[in-house]
Design brief:
- By secondary structure, this protein is of the alpha+beta class.
- It has two domains: 1-42; 46-228, Umud Fragment, subunit A.
- Helices cover 20% and strands 23% of the residues.
- The protein is built from three helices and eleven strands; from the N terminus they run H-E-E-E-E-E-E-E-E-E-H-E-E-H.
- The protein has helices spanning 2-42, 194-197, 225-228; strands at residues 44-48, 62-67, 93-96, 106-112, 117-121, 124-127, 130-131, 171-175, 180-184, 200-201, 205-215.
- The strands form two sheets. It has a seven-stranded antiparallel beta sheet with strand order 1-2-11-3-4-9-10. A four-stranded antiparallel beta sheet has the order 7-6-5-8, with no helix packed on it.
- A hairpin with a 2-residue loop joins strand 5 (117-121) and strand 6 (124-127).
- It is globular.
- The protein starts with a helix and ends in a 12-residue tail after the last helix.
- The model is unreliable at 1-12 (pLDDT under 50).
């Protein structure tokens, strides 16, 4: 009789053990997914470079790990952010939501911060009246071009300017207002940036790239470039 009871007791515990295993697995998944959401929302997130506007600093096919905490991360479902470690500074490469296309993320370099006076003469950037040394800039021999969308600059023209006739390589001087930033791509002749659509609000800046964690050449012509055309020399590189 004792043997039968032991057998019955053993059988009665099997379903319970199965349920316990399922619950432990589910609990581990929930915890892991919750940690992923917290890290992605408040700490770091991955982004891919889709265009050549930042060449040669960043290339099409680079994948970036972005620090979202450094400038303060957005709190979901609330109009607030976590405290920023630092504020965006001149020369920082930033990921942001452009004012003219809120459904996308752009990557550019901060050129002007609130209060700065900016202008460009023959593709040379002047910051507060001084020639800004930009060793990271890539220029081509393409002729200067006019863009009607650049006339937004006229509303921010600095006092004593020579009128408002902006082109790609000749514009300003303009003053960066409070709470706004002026950003440009390093590939100056092939970059859609603040020259064309205006300043970036502080709240639209999402983070600062930490390093390139993966890179491949999508223009290699191979059938599987993400496997056969990996740029190993770029993997792990920091950004400057």
């Amino acid at each position: 009789m004792a043997i039968d009871e032991g057998r019955i007791d053993g059988e009665s515990h099997r379903p319970r053990s199965g349920r316990r295993w399922a619950w432990e697995w589910t609990k581990s998944f929930i915890i892991a997914f919750g940690l992923f959401l917290i890290i992605r929302t408040f700490l770091v997130e991955a982004f891919r470079i889709p265009t050549g506007s930042m060449e040669s600093t960043l290339l099409v096919g680079d994948f970036l790990l972005v620090n979202k905490a450094v400038y303060g991360a957005r709190v979901p479902f609330a109009r607030t952010r976590t405290p920023a470690v630092v504020e965006p500074a001149r020369g920082d490469i930033v990921v942001f939501i452009p004012p003219h296309d809120p459904g996308k993320n752009y990557v550019k370099r901060v050129i002007g911060v609130p209060g700065d006076t900016l202008e460009m003469r023959d593709a040379v950037l002047l910051l507060n009246g001084q020639d800004r040394a930009e060793t990271y800039v890539r220029l081509s021999d393409a002729p200067d071009m006019y863009a009607s969308g650049m006339f937004w600059q006229c509303e921010h023209a600095a006092a004593g300017g020579n009128g408002c006739r902006p082109t790609r390589d000749n514009w300003g001087p303009i003053v960066v207002p409070d709470g706004r930033y002026f950003v440009m791509g390093d590939n100056r002749n092939d970059s859609e940036d603040s020259r064309y659509w205006g300043f970036v609000p502080r709240d639209a800046i999402r983070g600062r790239p930490l390093f390139i964690y993966y890179s491949f050449d999508p223009a290699s012509g191979r059938s599987t470039p993400w496997l056969s055309s990996i740029r190993w020399s770029r993997v792990g590189n920091g950004l400057h």
